[in-house]
Structure prediction request, 756 residues.
Amino acid sequence: MHKIWLIIQREYTTRVKNKRFLLVTFLMPLLIIGLIFGSAYLSTTGTEHRKIAVVDPNGFIKNALKNTSQIDFEFPENIDTSNYSSKGYSDILIIPKFDTTQKTNYILRSKKSMGLMLQNSISDKINSAIEDKMLQAAGIQQNTLDSIHKASQYAELKAYEDKGKTSKESNAGLAMGIGYASGFLIYITLFIYGTMVMRGVMEEKTNRIAEVIISSVKPFELMLGKIIGIGAVGLTQFALWIILITTLTSVGMGFLPADIQHQVTTLQQTNGQMGGAAGMAQASESAMRIYNMQHTISTANWPLIIGCFIFYFLGGYLFYSALFAAVGSVVNEDPQDAQSLMFPITMPIIFSYLITNMVTQNPNTPLAFWSSIIPFSSPMVMMARIAYGVPSAVTYWELALSMIILVAGFLFTTWLSGKIYRTGILMYGKKVNWKTMMKWAFMKQP
Amino acid sequence: MDPLLSLKHLQKFYASQKAVDDISFDIQAGSIFGLLGPNGAGKTTLLRMITGIFYPDEGQIILDGQPFNPINDISKIGYMPEERGMYKKMKIGEQALYLAQLKGLSKADAMEKITYWFKKLEMESWWNKKVEDLSKGMSQKLQFVITVLHEPKLIILDEPFSGLDPLNANLIKDEIYALAKKGSTIIFSTHRMEQVEEICDHIVLVNLGKKILDGTVADIKQQYKENIFSIETNQIDTIADNTIFSIVRREGNKVFVKMNGDHDGNQVLTHLINNHHHIIAYNELLPSLNEIFIKLVESTHASTRAFQNS
Prediction:
């Protein structure tokens, strides 16, 4: 046991002290946060400004086309598709005479094609103007219409999951996000740390240090020490990421203007209620948005999700890294061999990731159930299902079964790989395929 | 005196062949033992069984009077494999410390011994260097230090001098003698016969997984001598074939003669003196180990058996 501990220490410290590890660990959260804030920033300010000339013989649509920060609508005379650009417009919108009996096509011509979001918003505006016109034609007063529009702004779907006597707010969007993010994170880390184990084993073999060490410790101890040491590096990296992201987020919150911060705290204290419509007006739009974000995030069962994430990361890592170690042990100098031998290991990982993408939208299909039980895919798929809540989406017995099978699975792959490893690590100059590896796995002691 | 290591009918089979086929021999404590054999003879497999990397299929290994137990006896053995290896990116001091601790030394103990050996072999300035910065000879020296650091009773050196310049080779040779004098037993595996002749007390030659020669260097030479004597004289022309010996060849002022029947060397000398030959030098010509090796191995036509494991 003491020797495994020495090996774990070496594997861990040489990697954690490595400059590349520090670089990745500290740059990754900055990169992620930068991407989130950067794309948010770009989406609000970075879009182009358009000036659209509208030709509308109907007249009533004019009221519906209000100028926004991105679009100016103008209604000039004597304009057509041939001269709009010379008159300084970026687009021209031609709405034909409206006819209730058939579908009407209105035409947009642009110098530069317009994004889907903008097109949709223009289409929505015109359609609602037509709808209003038809409602008015049916005898509904303008002020009645206005009050209906206003009222509909206040309706919001809040889903709750029933848990016996209590019910808890649930949020499918958040669950999908968490499921997708944790599935993706496990997918990426399985690859990163799995190949790290493989390269470590290959290094020891091609350096020929394996024989020196194996005359001091058992091959299995060397393999296990490497797997555990690199797994600990992975956990360290996650811990540092969580700390960094939470610190950076709270630092980022500190840069918000004081009145918004105040409003957010008030919203938190009053549980989102600020006394009806009057309160809504008090809380600015951005404070409301921040509060909503925080509130949504708080509806997830974080201790359970983080706990399960660590379990499934470790389980998946141990399951696959043992196989990666076995491949590393049979490869000679040629990295090409590693590529082809890795294929049967990387395929199930990629498949599981694809299944995870489906499961994040639909956590309760038979495919989701079975792939969250089978250890090849359970680390990723089960995380996507857990995000939808335990025990509402995943029952306790399913979770327990999946966990037990995963533990049994990695014990099996470790045992199997240990047998392949101890033969492969001392074998030079022979090209090996999976068939030979299986033969070694079931061979008696060397 | 009891042998330190005793192999009894060791056998190890791989699917396609017998790598080690019923090999037995003893190694006396404090001796320098040569394990010889052509490539693929089974030497590496034999050494891997002695170091506990492989388990024998049949037979027994007795180390220090007890049946060999790989887990506990590892600290009694220092093994320097032919294919040397180091972590290229790791600092030399840390690497030595790590490998010594894997052999069971405490950190303080390991530190003390590394300092001692590094000083002795003038390697102190290497501590913070990386292995990739060392020359081949330098890393060889480091490997030797790591092998003997934990003061093992049994030291196994596979081709310890390959890649060393004569100066460093002598340095290591002196250390090997010193270790043997202090009571360590050394197994020395090589193809370099002149080194074996110089260093080893006792040798075993294996070929095709079988032991084909076992004894002290002097005994083996006696056993394989061809009763050829060299006579140095200034009157070579007057020496002719007779009942005692026949002339094999003449070379300058030397005549090489082969005994006829079971006459011995003194009879040659008596014959020459009686015939008033002036003798400058006279000695028996013993075969070199190299010649014995080639003679024994060549006859089997199987000197290059590939090492296989499945």
